[in-house]
Amino acid sequence: MSEDDARRRDAEDPGHRALFLVPPAQGGRYQECAYFAGNSLGLQPRAAKEALLGDLDDWATLAVEGHVEARRPWTAYHSLLTGPAARLVGALPEETVVMNTLTVNLHLLMVSFYRPRGERTRILVEESAFPSDSYAVRSQARYHGLDPDVEVIRTADPLGHLAAEGDKVALVLLGGVNYLTGEVLDIPGITRAGHAAGAKVGWDLAHAAGNIPLELHEWGPDFAAWCSYKYLNSGPGALGGVFVHQRHLDDPSIQRFEGWWSTEPETRFLMEPIATPPKSADAWQISNPPIFAMSPIRVSLELFDSIGMPALRARSLRLTAYLEGLLGEHTVVTPREPERRGCQLSLRVPDADGLSRRLSRKHGVIADSRNPDILRLAPTPLYSTYHDCWRAAEALRAEL
């Protein structure tokens, strides 16, 4: 396919690139880079800077009074994110809260939902789980006095393992979209199988939120957590999100760690020694939220609300299929079936790190690599273009 064809497709099927700041190309003949690393860090929305500066101005002019008198009062700022975050993941507002970062949230949720008893002690994770998930579940097993080498089960077949030894599984914790291959897991099917086996089921949606449509309330996992700096374009280290299913919100038997923000807002400043948790995911909060970290998330969620995940998913399928067609004989380890992948194609290549550096420095194509031999390309529907895909394929042909 030609460069002219790519340009024609962009004219007929434009995305929303103008809403983002695209870094300049380090190499090649184009001014802007072709950016395929949104599965690691999304681009900055143009509106993020103004939003953050507005919140900084409130601090400058109001100081402590900003908690109640800011344009977006700080004591309730996190609630501005609840509705759009819930819509993004297919949840009820009371099931959703934006707080902390991903692995912190996974630990807080496992306090509640990993409760090993008797023979039911194991944690089921995918064979290629993201390392921080592996670290987290292993440390949770140790916290309960268990041997993580025995209790943490890594499997490429979670449904088969649940069918064979589900009576020993206390918690299923999988990535909704695998970080390495881009494969979309069967979230509703695995959730049903985990519950049928008597286990709690949670999902790490770091590579799924903002990438694929989600229906968490309907699918019914016990909990989920996600980050906001990948497909949600909220900045490095941005706050994450949490989902706790409605059936758990009024259960007094659930254990939680609590803090200043775990109590009802109406009772917070009564300075009582015992928390009165709300019947919502807000009860899993601990500390008051960092306001300036929420400004970019607010901007990003407004974009997703205005454009909608159905439209983004449809464009994602078109872009990813186009890139796949351009890649020809390269070894793609991502599933070929469109419904089984997000907006990512992972290639098996020699010297993935070196190739990634050459693509950037010589061609202005930014991808990323995972040792030892995986190059990841994520054509993100918000800001990637068909011309970006054409550039990536041409650069790979030149280098391989």
TrEMBL record:
Q: Which reaction does it catalyse?
A: L-kynurenine + H2O = anthranilate + L-alanine + H(+); 3-hydroxy-L-kynurenine + H2O = 3-hydroxyanthranilate + L-alanine + H(+)
SUPFAM superfamilies xrefs = PLP-dependent transferases (SSF53383)
* N6-(pyridoxal phosphate)lysine PTM sites in chain numbering: K230
Annotated pyridoxal 5'-phosphate binding sites:
L102, T103, F130, P131, S132, D133, D204, H207, Y229, W260, N288
One GO MF annotation is: kynureninase activity
EC number from the UniProt entry: 3.7.1.3
Enumerate the UniProt keywords alphabetically: Hydrolase, Pyridine nucleotide biosynthesis, Pyridoxal phosphate
A GO cellular component entry from the record: cytoplasm
Q: What class of enzyme is it?
A: hydrolase
* Pathway(s) of this molecule: Cofactor biosynthesis; NAD(+) biosynthesis; quinolinate from L-kynurenine: step 2/3; Amino-acid degradation; L-kynurenine degradation; L-alanine and anthranilate from L-kynurenine: step 1/1
Among the record's GO biological process terms, what is one? anthranilate metabolic process
Q: Which residues form a coiled coil?
A: none
One Pfam family from the UniProt entry? KYNU_C
Cofactor(s) recorded in Swiss-Prot or TrEMBL: pyridoxal 5'-phosphate
Q: Which HAMAP family match?
A: Kynureninase
The record's subunit annotation is: Homodimer.
Task of the protein: Catalyzes the cleavage of L-kynurenine (L-Kyn) and L-3-hydroxykynurenine (L-3OHKyn) into anthranilic acid (AA) and 3-hydroxyanthranilic acid (3-OHAA), respectively.
* Protein family membership: Belongs to the kynureninase family.
The protein here is known as Kynureninase
**UniProt lineage:** Bacteria, Bacillati, Actinomycetota, Actinomycetes, Streptosporangiales
